[in-house]
Amino acid sequence: MTPGEKVAEQAEKYVGVRENPMGSNRGRPYPEKWQAPWGMGTGWPWCAAFADAMYKEAGVSDDGIGHPSTWTMYKNAQARGAIVKRPMVGCYILWPGKHVGIVVSVPGDGTVLTVEGNAGDGVRYKRRSTSGVVFVAPKDVRVGNNPAAVTRNYYLQDVAVRPPRLVGPWRTRAARERRLKNVKSHIRRVRVRGKYGAYVGPPNIYGPWATKAQRNRAQKILEDRLGRRLRPFSRPAKGAPAGKADAMGKTT
Questions:
Q1: What angle (nearest 5°) sits at the alpha carbon of residue 86, between those of residues 82 and 87?
Q2: Contact between residue 135 and residue 86 where contact means Cβ atoms under 8 Å apart
Q3: What span, in angstroms and rounded, lies between the C-alpha atoms of 45 and 25?
């Protein structure tokens, strides 16, 4: 297993962790355990604290890039020559000054699968476009990375739940947030023809992963957390629908 795969595997272990109470940037043991090493107390946006902790827990050096500020992470990455043109498993995906996550799969279709802390008040899988973002790969991740040609993409289906339903759209973000204020289910915020909508309900398709081994590791973690079996399947990478990348949504 490469250093990058170790980081990705560690991040996937926490998918499903949520703040308590939701929207508070607090929760024991997580995210407060990830916030604690920075000596800033609790209640602050913790996406960067989560990402940095995944490197530490995996025993992989990030060359001192990690920091509670995503803008400072960006400057650190520039100084260390760690910004790369293409995504790699285990690298940071960074929106400087806004948000950061961990790349866990590169399916080769113009998107990456990520695990992100402080995404919708928890740790979640996200599917992100490879455009308009910064990929940061510390030396160990770059050296250990051996990208293979992607011939199939690998997925998991949760047949016990229905697909999330689209609600809205509303003309303003504020109107959407008022309607979703008391919704307890999983929420994925999206833009719909320039308006503001959301998918409500737990996801029933996870992926894609670029290799069967990555998918199988994630399957075990998700099944343990969900307490039920998931159906594995795959599609040929060539001609497979790329899918729509997630909008940024709520990250604080």
A1: 85
A2: yes
A3: 6
SS (H, E, C) 199-246: EECCCCEEEEECCHHHHHHHHHHHHHHHCCCCEEEEEECCCCCCCCCC
Q: Which of 148, 176, 207 is the last residue of a domain?
A: 148
Domain span at residue 83 reads 3-148
Output 44 or 161, whichever has higher pLDDT.
44
Which residues are registered as beta bridge partners of 234?
154
DSSP string, 31-85: THHHHGGGTS-SSS--HHHHHHHHHHHHT---TT---S-HHHHHHHHHHTT-EES
pLDDT digits (tens, 9 = 90+) for 164-214: 889 989 989 999 998 888 887 778 888 888 899 988 887 788 888 888 888
Question: Do residue 80 and residue 171 come from a single domain?
Answer: no
SS3 147: coil
What is the Cα–Cα distance from 91 to 83, expressed in whole angstroms? 10
Summarised one tens digit per residue, pLDDT across range 77-93 is 999 999 999 999 999 99
Secondary structure letter of residue 178 according to DSSP: H
**222 occurs within a structural domain:** no
Question: Percent helix, strand, coil in the chain (nearest 5)?
Answer: 25, 25, 45
- Among 193, 189, 195, 194, CA closest to 245: 189
Q: Would you tell me the crossing angle of helices 212-226 and 3-12 to the nearest 10 degrees?
A: 20
What's the domain count of the chain? 2
Q: Residue 1: CA atoms inside 13 Å, Cβ hemisphere, count?
A: 15
